Here is the input.
Amino acid sequence: MSPLIHPTALVSPKAKLGKNVSIGQFTTIYDNVVIGDDSEVGAYCELGVANKFSAGEALEIGVGALIRSHSIFYEASTFGDRLVTGHRVTVREKTRAGANLQIGTLTDIQGSCRIGDYVRMHSNVHVGQHSTIGDYVWIFPYVVLTNDPHPPSDVMRGCTIEDYAVVATMTTILPGVKVGKHALVGAHSLLGADAQPGKIYAGKAAEERGDVTAIRLKDGTRRPAYPWIRHFRRGYPASVIAQWEKMLDEGLV
Here is the structure.
């Protein structure tokens, strides 16, 4: 099926649109853009914004994307299949993201970031340049990943958030800090030193508060809340859940 383009949209003839792609009203698709099959781009978006850092690389978006209204994507970034955004999202150049990424409304992802598969970012998240985010990471509203150790300067030390880590709302991660696998950074924290894998960190400045396995679900069962893959499966395909079950059975988590 040919692309369905609203009459008010401006789509460059050089852009490459897959089958069954829909483009909303007053959206602009520039030259250097590739959009996969079965994708939907909402109203008032701009995709493929040129800039001096892109070196002519294309913006590439995989199949099955849903990009909601007023979102802006610069050229020279790549996204795996099934990207989903909220409204008014901004993504700068040279970001490399995996499959099944969800970006919440008003979230800002700066340039040269690396993002894994199945990452969930809620609304109003700021991801500074040179951040690295692993697979299955949860980042909740108003989290800020910083990168300049003595602003303003040209020194950039991006944060690293490893696989399965959770960063709770209103938290700031300082430049160069690493959050280890399965770690939990509590709400309203200021993290200035590395969070060790599987540990809880909270406070300003954030300090270790024990093992994540000590936290219990507030559902009456008193089951361990972490690692969260033991009980939270919503939105993940059967193949991923089977992988988790194998990891749990083999004691790898």
Q: What stands out?
A: The helical segments are 238-249. The domain at 4-218 is CATH 2.160.10.10 (UDP N-Acetylglucosamine Acyltransferase; domain 1). The longest strand covers residues 206-211.
